C-alpha cells in the first residue's frame, strides 16, 4: 500500500530531512511513526501527500509512483488519503456539517448523497448532535473529531494523521485513538505520526522510530524508544 | 460540473465579493468608470460617424456639359455615370430647375425683378452625382472628366474630408483612453482577487489536501471577477441611458443653427450595440483579471 525505496529528501540547506529511507506498509496496517523534532516525520507525511518530491528514491502509494504524478493527477491521488492535522485545520466560518460536507463537495458528491453521508460519519465520530456548532464552540477533542470526520467522509483507503493528539488532553487523546482503531478495524490503513509516548506504548501497534532522517527501529508491536 | 457544484461555486464567489467588499466596490467603480468613458466615447464616435455619413451623402459632384450638347447625349452621359460602382444616386437638374432653385435660395422676393422667360442660368443644366463613399470621389471625377461633351466637373470634398479626419482623431483618442482604463480595471480586479486569496489561504490549503482540482479551487475567484465585471458594466449602462437623451436635447437646443448638421442617433440605436459590448468588456475584464491572478497564486 505504501512503499518507500531508498528515499532521501534534502532541503537547500542543512542535513537531509530523510536519508535513504526504505519501508513498506501493508493495506489495513496501523503504524505509528515516532521520533523527536527534526527526525523527519513531517517530511515523511509531506512526501506521502505529494506536497514534496523526494530528492532521490521511489515512493509508491496505492500502486502509484508519487514522483510520476502529473499536476492534474495529484487531486485524484489525494482523494485516497484522509489527513488529520495537529491544529485541526477546520473552516472557522462554517459549522460542523458544512466542514464535513465541504470535503464531499470537492469530490463532486451529489447533494442527496452528501445529506446522507455527513450525518452518518458525524455519528461515527460521536458528533451527531453538534452538526450546527461552529469550530470555536467546540472543545479541542471535538474539533479533532470533526477533522477526522472530514478526512473519512470520502472513504479513503489510507488515513494519515500528523500529531493528531498534540493539542488534546489525555482523555480526548485516547478517544481519538480509539476512533482510529475502530476505523482501522474496518480496513482503513492508518499512519499516525506522534510524540505521544503513553499512547504508543499502550496500543501495541507497529512502531517505526526515526532519528535525524533515518529509521532506527521498526517493530511489529513496538514501543516508543527514546533516542536521546 | 454538477449543478450543485456550480451553485456552490457561485455562492462562494458571491461570498468572496462581500468578504472584501471595499476592494470589490473599488473594482466595480473602476470598471464602471471605464465603461462610462467607453460609452461616452462610443456615443460620440458613433454620432460623429453618423453625421459624417450624412454629410457625405450630401456631397455631390456636379457635372456640366459643353454648349449645344443634345438631350440624347446628356442622357447617355447620365447612363455612363450611373453605371459606376461608386455612384449611389444621380439627379438631373435642368437649367430652369437650377434657376428656380437659385431664386428660392438667394433672391426671394427680388426674383420678381427678372423677366419670366429670362434664365440667366441657361446652358447650366447638370447632373448632381452622389457617392457611396466620399473617398472614391477623385476616381469618379477623373472618369467623368474623360467623357466627351463634359465641360466641367465640380467637386466639394473639403467638408467631408475634414469631418472624416476629425472622426479618425476622436476614434484614436477614445481607443487610447479606453485601453488605459481597461488596464487600470484589470489591475484593480487582480488586487481584489489577490486579497481574496490571501484571506482564504487556509481554506485553499485544506482544499488541496482533500483533493480539490485546480478548477474547483479557482472557480469561486473567477466567478467573483466575472460578477464584479458584470455589476460594473450594468451601472454605467443605466447611467448613460438616462443622460444620453438629455445631452442630445441640450445640444440640439444650444446649437439649433446647426440643426442640418447635428443629426443624432437615438438612444435605442446606440444601446443596441453598447449593451452587449459593455457587458462583454465588463465580464471580459473581470474574467481576465481574476483568471490570471488565480493562476499566478494558486498552484495545486
Q: What keywords describe this structure?
A:
heterodimer, A: 228 residues, alpha/beta, six-stranded mixed beta sheet, 7 helices, B: 300 residues, alpha+beta, 71% helix, 8% strand
Report on the structure:
The complex is a heterodimer of chains A (228) and B (300). With 228 residues, chain A is of the alpha/beta class. Chain A has seven helices and ten strands. In chain A, 32% of the residues lie in helices and 25% in strands. In chain A, α3 packs parallel to α5 and α5 packs parallel to α6. Helix content of chain B is 71%, strand content 8%. Chain B has a four-stranded antiparallel sheet with strand order 2-3-1-4. The longest helix of chain B has 42 residues. The mean pLDDT of chain B is 82. The chains are: A alpha/beta (228), B alpha+beta (300). At the A-B interface, α2 and α3 of A face α1 and α7 of B.
The total strand number of chain B stands at 4
Strand order of the largest sheet of chain A: 6-7-8-3-9-10
Question: How would you sum up the global shape of chain A?
Answer: globular
Strand content of chain B: 5-15%
Kindly state the mean pLDDT of chain B as a whole number? 82
Following the backbone from N to C, one meets helices and strands of chain B in this order, namely HHEHEHEHEHHHH
Unreliable parts of chain B: none
Order of helices and strands of chain A: EEEHEEHEHHHEHEHEE
- Computed Rg of chain B: 31 Å
What are the low-pLDDT stretches of chain A, counting only 5+ consecutive residues below 50? none
What fraction of the residues of chain A are assigned to beta strands by DSSP? 25-35%
What class would the helix/strand composition of chain A place it in? alpha/beta
Amino acid at each position: 500500500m505504501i512503499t518507500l525505496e531508498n528515499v532521501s529528501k534534502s532541503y537547500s540547506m542543512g542535513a537531509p530531512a530523510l536519508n535513504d529511507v526504505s519501508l513498506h506498509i501493508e493495506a489495513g496496517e496501523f503504524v505509528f511513526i515516532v521520533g523527536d523534532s527534526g527526525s523527519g516525520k513531517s517530511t515523511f507525511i509531506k512526501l506521502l501527500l505529494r506536497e514534496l518530491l523526494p530528492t532521490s528514491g521511489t515512493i509508491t502509494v496505492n500502486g502509484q509512483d508519487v514522483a510520476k504524478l502529473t499536476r492534474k493527477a495529484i487531486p485524484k491521488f489525494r482523494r485516497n488519503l484522509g489527513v488529520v492535522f495537529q491544529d485541526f485545520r477546520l473552516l472557522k466560518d462554517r459549522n460542523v456539517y458544512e466542514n464535513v460536507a465541504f470535503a464531499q463537495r470537492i469530490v463532486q458528491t451529489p447533494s442527496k448523497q452528501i445529506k446522507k453521508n455527513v450525518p452518518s460519519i458525524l455519528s461515527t465520530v460521536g458528533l451527531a448532535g453538534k452538526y450546527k456548532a461552529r469550530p470555536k464552540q467546540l472543545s479541542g477533542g471535538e474539533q479533532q473529531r470533526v477533522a477526522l470526520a472530514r478526512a473519512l467522509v470520502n472513504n479513503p483507503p489510507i488515513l494519515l494523521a500528523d500529531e493528531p493528539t498534540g493539542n488534546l488532553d489525555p482523555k480526548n487523546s485516547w478517544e481519538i485513538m480509539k476512533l482510529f482503531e475502530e476505523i482501522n478495524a474496518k480496513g482503513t490503513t492508518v499512519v499516525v505520526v506522534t510524540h505521544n509516548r503513553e499512547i504508543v506504548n499502550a496500543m501495541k501497534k507497529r512502531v517505526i522510530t526515526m532519528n535525524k532522517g533515518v529509521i532506527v527501529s521498526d517493530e511489529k508491536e513496538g514501543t516508543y524508544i527514546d533516542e536521546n | 460540473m454538477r449543478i450543485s457544484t456550480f451553485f456552490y461555486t457561485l455562492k462562494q464567489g458571491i461570498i468572496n465579493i462581500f468578504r472584501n467588499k471595499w476592494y470589490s466596490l473599488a473594482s466595480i467603480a473602476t470598471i464602471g468608470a471605464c465603461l462610462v468613458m467607453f460609452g461616452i466615447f462610443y456615443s460620440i464616435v458613433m454620432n460623429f460617424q453618423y453625421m459624417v455619413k450624412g454629410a457625405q451623402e450630401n456631397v455631390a459632384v456636379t457635372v456640366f456639359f459643353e454648349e449645344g450638347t443634345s438631350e440624347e447625349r446628356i442622357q447617355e452621359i447620365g447612363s455612363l455615370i450611373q453605371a459606376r460602382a461608386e455612384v449611389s444616386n444621380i439627379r438631373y437638374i435642368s437649367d430652369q430647375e437650377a434657376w428656380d432653385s437659385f431664386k428660392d435660395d438667394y433672391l426671394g422676393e427680388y426674383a420678381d425683378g427678372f423677366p419670366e422667360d429670362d434664365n440667366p442660368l441657361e446652358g447650366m443644366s447638370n447632373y448632381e452625382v452622389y457617392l457611396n463613399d466620399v473617398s472614391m470621389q477623385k476616381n469618379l471625377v477623373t472618369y467623368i472628366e474623360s467623357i466627351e461633351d463634359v465641360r466641367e466637373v465640380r467637386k466639394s470634398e473639403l467638408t467631408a474630408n475634414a469631418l472624416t479626419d476629425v472622426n479618425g482623431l476622436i476614434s484614436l483618442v477614445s481607443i487610447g483612453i479606453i485601453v488605459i482604463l481597461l488596464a487600470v480595471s484589470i489591475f484593480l480586479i487582480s488586487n481584489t482577487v489577490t486579497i481574496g486569496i490571501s484571506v482564504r489561504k487556509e481554506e485553499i490549503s485544506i482544499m488541496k489536501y482533500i483533493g480539490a482540482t485546480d478548477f474547483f479551487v479557482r472557480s469561486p475567484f473567477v466567478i467573483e471577477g466575472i460578477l464584479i465585471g458584470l455589476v460594473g458594466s450594468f451601472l454605467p449602462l443605466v447611467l448613460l441611458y438616462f443622460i444620453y437623451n438629455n445631452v442630445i436635447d441640450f445640444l440640439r437646443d444650444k446649437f439649433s443653427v446647426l440643426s442640418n448638421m447635428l443629426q443624432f442617433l437615438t438612444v435605442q440605436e446606440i444601446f443596441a450595440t453598447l449593451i452587449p459590448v459593455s457587458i462583454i468588456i465588463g465580464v471580459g475584464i473581470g474574467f481576465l483579471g481574476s483568471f490570471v491572478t488565480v493562476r499566478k497564486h494558486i498552484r495545486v
